[in-house]
Amino acid sequence: MVTMELDSAEGLRISPPAKSFDDVHYSRLIHTIGKEAVEALHRSKVLILGCRGVGAEIAKNLICSGIGGVGLVDEDVVSNKDLGAHMFLKEGDVGQNRAVATARNLSELNPSAEIVTLSVTALEASIKNYHVVAATVGSFPYLVHLNNLCRSVGVYFVAAIAHGIFSFVFVDLGEMFSFVDQTAEPVGLLLVESITQDCPATITVVEEQRHGLADGDEVIFYGVRGMEEVNKTVPYPVSVTGTSSFTIPVDSRTFGRYISGGYFHKLKRAKDLAFLPLGQSLNSPDICTFDSANASLIPHLHIGFQALDEFETRKNGASITGGGSAFSEQDLDELLKVANELWDHSVFAGKEAAHSNGKIDTADVVKDGQLEERPIFEIRSSGSKLRQEKDSQDGLKSRLSDFETDGRGMAPDEDGGSQDVGISTRTREGPVKKMSEAEGRNDKIDSTIVRFLAQSWHTELCPIAAIIGGVASQEVIKAISKVLVPLHQWLYFDAMDCLPSQQLPPEDRAASDSRYDFQISLFGRNFQQSLKDSKWLVVGAGGIGSELLKNLVLMGVGCSSEGQIVVTDMDNVSKSNLTNQALYQIEDIGRPKTPTAARALRRLNPAAQIHALQEKFELDSESVFDSSFFESISVDTASSRLYIDMRCVSYRRPMIDGGKHGTKGSVQVFVPFNSEMYASTQDAPEHKEIPICTLRNFPYATEHTIQWAVTMFESLFKQRPLDVNAYLSSRDYQDNIRKSAPTARLPILETLRDALVRQRPLSFEACVQWARLQFEELFSNNIKQLLFNFPPGMTTTAGAPFWSGTKRIPTPVIFDPSQRLHIDFIVAASNLQATVYGLKGCQDRLLLVDIIHKMDIPHFEPKEGVKIAISDNELRGSTQRRGYHSADDNDAIDTCAALLKELPTPATLAGYRLSPIEFQKDDEHNFHAEFVAAAANLRASNYGIPFAEKLQARLVGGQVIPAMITSTAVVGGLMCLELYKLLLQKPLADHRHTYFNLALPLFCYAQPLKAVEHTVTRVQGTPLTWTLWDRFEMDCVDMKLEKFLAEFKRQHGLDITMISYGKSLLYAEFLPRKKLQDRMSLTLLELITVVGKVTIPAIESKAIFSISCTDANDNDVEVPDVVAKIR
After folding, report:
1. With bands split at pLDDT 50, 70 and 90, how would you rate the model's confidence at 1010?
2. Is the model's pLDDT at 30 over the cut of 60?
3. What is the pLDDT at residue 879?
4. Phi and psi (nearest 5°) for 111?
5. Cα distance between residue 227 and residue 236, in whole Å
6. Residue 108: what pLDDT?
7. Closest Cα to residue 78, out of 464, 313, 414?
8. Inter-axis angle of helices 731-739 and 720-729, to 10 degrees?
């Protein structure tokens, strides 16, 4: 709902939305920061000063994240230039009030958020009605005044200011701010191996885990058997004695002896941070920098921003929302004088920055009536240790556990800036090195930085707005939720690496009242045309894809008759997408993503040339994504990264890869002929795979019980119906069953027999009976059999207790209709069974209980000879032995024969089919999450494991990845900065892999690795030097294999010993002579079609062959592929 109050002075009153809080809608966000934090956002409201690009990004991120209300203040009107960095302004909004136009279009994102526009005169009186003020415009004197006003009424303050390629975020959360959770990561449960009867008591964790505690951390125990005295809600402080042990200050000698079981977790304690107001912090800044190499640049930016602000005030007068005219050379001279005056009176003059928490000087600050000594200025680099690894990407990644992602899977003057001041770029080593000379002393402000800043002052870039808007809105969320570590207190971000290497003529940067004027003033008109004419393939239109596509069309990429953006994604829009995918709205739920995104993008920029596909980018779609697609550049935001990487390298196209996971994100760029490829460095898997035997028989953590329940859902309601349908419709399936080993055939036939004969329901009552029998089988009989095989007190061959460590003694669950959890399982399972068989379900619990009471549950007796594997190695061994005939096979043959007789033939059930069920995470009434939650918690009851919530079951079952639009926006912006560099053909040294975690906040850069060069000695000529980007290119139309071998040796001085195409071996010296003779007379195209049995699409004129060769010394050598023209 939008309320216009431009003439009102009484501000805004927002009540919590009448609509109830929707767990499914916000599930990805809850997965990231927790439900309490999201509910706090739902009850809060934020006032945003300034509705240019950064202000719009902050509003977008907060509204998608469920903020209760937003107030917008901006009295300027929309200009054409605003359209280049603002996704909520349309061409028809030009000339209208910017706040009103922004509010009108923002309201489509989330109808439950109340959006209000306020006049500047009403601003100060309305502040008390908000929880946070986010200022994106304003002079420093005004921001200081606004910050002081916020402090006086207990309102948090965030400033996020962007000028072209330069920006900063400042945070003030009051004299003392407490936050309760530093990372919002789930609390990991650790298993107790033993507890000594001693003073102090020593606790040892199981061998498979490390406790990760530090001295002074506090832990809480529960589920300990024997020594129940430690199972208290009171936390115990720990003293670490090893990676797997610690002590607690308890005299346990009088306690009961520890028997088994038990968990503990680390208690999250609130931490306090003190903040200075902006007025004091300007002169005594606490600055967080991205990396130590950039630290010496920060003081010059800090003073440079103040100098530009002071100069503008002197020239044009004070202004709240900005503005001003372009800078002439005379202006620049005056500006440098102002900058040097401020520098000489600053704490930086003649001093070296206090880095990595070192302090150079102190000043007295009054706090709570006491004099407190603090550093005059301090530049902190949380990632300085990580930075030391930048020369080795593997080393860098190995230290980036906090950064790993789901994939390893972005009022100005009217003249558009000065037309008199040229602009050029520099490497990081340039000004930074110069600034740190003279024995590390900062004697003078760097004039180059000031000139760059002046050039950018009246401009705004879409990628910078996305990045700084993402960071700032994350800080607003931290202030409201009291979750995650707030920024303390300054963060500067610049993109000088993106600027053109050569000075641009004034006419190339002249304004023309277009939506791209800001971008043109920095990069030039010719570069803007190259953006418009470029062609991009974007894989994925989800969270990152949405942000990236939005940025691309705002920048003008692919927005000419020569340009194009091709986007492909198979998914449909789901409810949980709406919190981090701003291109989609509530009415889009269920629609395919790519055409929906294309329509939204054309509304942002009518010139956008969007080609929407619904194809998965993989080997099977190569007929769609043929070589013509790779005449353009590729951007990857999807999970099939290795395949995309291979295709980009094959066609020598760059790839920009974006990944995210909650508050974490990464951007990597791969540059043809310069960098290594994505596959060159393998990241460790994000999630360790759970052993099969752990899931089946020996779970010890909540994630094990949930994953087991998901597996049961897939087995009972998806795979079982699929198997039945295949049996009824596919003769090949029937033949495969008959050909398989008897022991492998038996469980399949039993499943088919039960589904079609013994357990085939004809009524819902039969579905209830089936569900009750499943309960007995899964949670009682199977446990009884397990305990029969491995009874309590059993020891291993080494004499150790079998049930110890991660193996927890289970207990069968006795069905009790008065237990809600038990009936939850029956309701969910019976209704899902009814869906599979096309029957009408029922949720009447009394009716279900009545049906169950009439049942006779068969008595279970454990069986002798049942084999249960206790490790995955043992399980694999038993699987491999199925290929050999054994005594078990004799019994299985007879049983299979009997089952086949009992099974109805497909002909007798012609047309009969079951309905397989795909897990749907966003439907609250389909019993999917209910089944997984109930099954997981009954399994947990068996093993004494903590229960899971239904939302947790929904997230795991739906494979939902934690997501926040804040980190998604930062990834999208960073990807576009790398795009600038690619189109400008920047050197590899200017490109950056970026890894960040907004929770801390922490950023880390790494330069892409240079492509490895290989050298091969040839029979004649100079040695061959090549990288992974090189290819042998030959015209081989109608060329026979024999001639190809000879021609290759003549041209390249190497003997080919083997040729393959895809997975097909076409030629090898070791093949039988007859085969070699037959193939020598075939053309290369015939080799592919006849020998390889692969059909090349008619539109493809080239084929890529992998070859092996011997060099001049007859040694086997690795060489590039051959790209052969075959048509």
Report:
1. very high
2. yes
3. 55
4. -60, -20
5. 15
6. 86
7. 414
8. 110
Q: What is the pLDDT of residue 435?
A: 36
Answer yes or no: is pLDDT of 321 > 60. no
pLDDT at 883 over 80: no
Q: What is the pLDDT of residue 640?
A: 73
Give the residue from 473, 376, 400 showing the smallest Cα distance to 62. 473
> What is d(CA 450, CA 431) in angstroms, rounded to the nearest whole number?
11
Q: Residue 549 corresponds to which tokens in the numbers above?
A: 């596509």
Q: Measuring CA to CA, which residue among 342, 301, 320, 332 is closest to residue 166? A: 301
Closest by alpha carbon to 284, among 364, 227, 214, 356? 364
Determine the Cα–Cα distance for residues 757 and 727; give it in Å rounded to an integer.
14
Residue 842 is among the residues annotated as catalytic for this protein = no
For residue 573, the model assigns a pLDDT of: 94
The first and second tokens of residue 370, run together, are: 């006491």
Please give the Cα distance from 740 to 988 (Å, whole number): 55
What the block records as the tokens of 9 is 């002075």
Q: Look at residue 888 in the predicted model and tell me its pLDDT.
A: 55
**Residues 426-471: pLDDT tens digits?**
333 333 333 333 334 467 899 999 999 999 999 999 999 999 999 9
pLDDT score, position 740: 84
- Res. 377: pLDDT tops 70: no
Q: Which residues contact 630 (CB under 8 A, 6 or more apart)?
A: 537, 647, 648, 650, 651, 653
Residues in the chain: 1127
Number of Cβ within a 10 Å radius of residue 919? 20
Residue type, 376: I
Report the 3 state secondary structure along 336-380.
Answer: HHHHHHHHHCCCCCCCCCCECCCCCCEEEEEECCEEEEEECCEEE
**Are the C-beta atoms of 1019 and 1052 separated by less than 8 Å?**
no
pLDDT value for 117: 95
Distance in angstroms (rounded) separating the CA atoms of residues 454 and 337: 13
* d(C-alpha 449, C-alpha 600), whole Å: 38
Using alpha carbons, select from 653, 642, 651, 652 the residue that is nearest to residue 682.
642
Looking at residue 622, its pLDDT comes to 59
Tell me the torsion sign for CA atoms 731, 735, 736, 738. positive
The count of C-alpha atoms lying within 13 angstroms of the C-alpha of 406, restricted to the half-sphere facing its C-beta, is 18
Positive or negative torsion for Cα 941, 945, 950, 955:
negative
What pLDDT sits at residue 430?
A: 37
Instruction: For 336, list phi and psi in degrees, rounded to 5.
Output: -65, -35
Catalytic-role residue among 693, 767, 896, 976: 693
Residue 1006 three-state SS:
strand
Of 273, 366, 262, nearest to 809 by C-alpha is: 262
Helix (H) or strand (E) holding 203: strand 201-205
Q: Which residue, among 659, 710, 677, 371, has the nearest Cα to 543 in the 3D structure?
A: 659
Tell me if the bond preceding 489 is cis, omega within 30° of 0: yes
Going along 252-369, which residue ranges are E strands?
A: 263-266, 271-273, 286-288, 362-367
Cα gap 544→566, rounded to integer Å: 15
Count of CB atoms within 10 A of residue 630's CB? Answer: 17
Q: Read off the tokens for 1001.
A: 């906040």
Residue 342: predicted pLDDT: 94
Tokens 């929707």 sit at which residue? 22
Supply φ then ψ for residue 112, to 5 degrees: -80, -15
What the block records as the tokens of 260 is 């088994």
Q: Which residues contact 394 (CB under 8 A, 6 or more apart)?
A: 681
Q: Is 1035 helix (H, G, I), strand (E, B) or coil?
A: strand
Residue with tokens 């196209």: 653
pLDDT at 422: 30
Greatest extent of the chain over all pairs of C-alpha atoms, in Å: 100
Q: Which two tokens stand for residue 221?
A: 């125990």
Q: What is d(CA 113, CA 67) in angstroms, rounded to the nearest whole number?
A: 6
**How many Cβ atoms are within 10 Å of 969's Cβ, its own excluded?**
36
Residue 293 has a pLDDT of 67
Tell me the C-alpha distance between 491 and 494, whole Å. 10
In order of 71, 76, 160, the CA distances from 102 in angstroms are 11, 12, 18
